[in-house]
Write a structure and sequence with these properties.
Largest sheet: 12 strands, mixed
Distance between the termini: 30 Å
Number of helices: 1
Order of helices and strands: EEEEEEEEEEEEEEEEEHEE
Helix content: under 10%
Structural class: mainly beta
Shape: globular
């Protein structure tokens, strides 16, 4: 996957649904993982597009690594995106998203395709709608049809208040973000806030990402200081040099499937909400 924030990955969250392949060994360790995603983006003129894609994270414990903190209210993870395996060649595979506003035949995610498939129009319109997902190939066990609940299309961001301003970030204090909370009886979903930056002198790198997942009903969340420090270390900017990048917001739902052979399959639905610059002072 060459995109940044579509198909967020959650390792521990109150809004993640997990299911088990019927032959999965609960005593076994997950040592291979892959993420499939469907993402909606709304342009400034209100046009909505939908993208689907996939990415191998690791295979037999080779590849993706992320460090994080998990509390009752927050799950935050920092990683070098180039550590992910991406899309190594496999014999073949087809995954399919269906339902919602997608075409009757669904939308296929094809193995070894380098670019995401993008469609005009939304795949869903409201939180709690249901899509389906299934997959065969990709060097993993077949995944039978499963249901994926989707997040809200829209989210009002309250902090930062100015959507166009460069957001100042400091290592000696938490970065606080805010949004309009959902009603208590609304379908559960996460708000994902993330910062990404590309190390200086590495223009072709995918960069470093710190992403935090918050319960939407909370209305506010904070990036912990220790995770901001971890992010700055991974970027590797010299002391006194500001780290500049993008702050992103999205709504998020996820299905986690544990399959035979130690496979973890993450199926993620996101709706992009905002992107703006930030500057972290070291």
């Amino acid at each position: 996957m060459k995109y940044r924030s579509a198909f967020f990955l959650v390792l521990c969250s109150s809004v993640v649904v997990a299911c088990f392949d019927e032959d999965f060994d609960l005593d076994g360790r997950s040592n291979s993982s892959i993420v499939f995603g469907i993402d909606q983006t709304k342009s400034a003129d209100g046009k909505v597009t939908t993208s689907v894609g996939y990415e191998m994270l690791d295979v037999r414990n080779h590849g993706w690594r992320a460090r994080g903190v998990v509390t009752q209210d927050t799950s935050c993870w920092a990683e070098r995106l180039d550590d992910r395996l991406g899309q190594p060649h496999v014999e073949g595979g087809v995954a399919k998203f269906g339902g919602g506003l997608l075409p009757p035949e669904g939308v296929a995610v094809v193995a070894n395709r380098a670019d995401d498939l993008t469609l005009d129009g939304p795949a869903w319109t409201k939180a709690g709608d249901t899509l389906t997902f299934e997959a065969q190939g990709f060097a993993m066990p077949d995944i039978k049809e499963s249901k994926l609940l989707v997040p809200s299309q829209d989210l009002a961001i309250l902090a930062p208040a100015d959507a166009a301003a460069e957001v100042p970030v400091r290592l000696d204090q938490e970065l606080e973000v805010g949004w309009t909370p959902s009603a208590k009886d609304a379908p559960a979903e996460n708000v994902v806030a993330s910062i990404t930056a590309v190390p200086e002198g590495m223009p072709n790198a995918r960069g470093v990402e710190l992403r935090c997942f918050f319960d939407r009903t909370a209305g506010t969340g904070k990036f912990p200081k220790n995770m901001l420090e971890r992010f700055a270390t991974l970027v590797g900017a010299p002391e006194g040099t500001p780290v500049k990048g993008k702050l992103h917001f999205a709504t998020h739902r996820q299905l986690t499937i544990f399959a035979r052979g130690g496979w973890t399959v993450y199926v993620v639905a996101t709706a992009e909400q905002r992107e703006q610059p930030f500057a972290l002072q070291r």
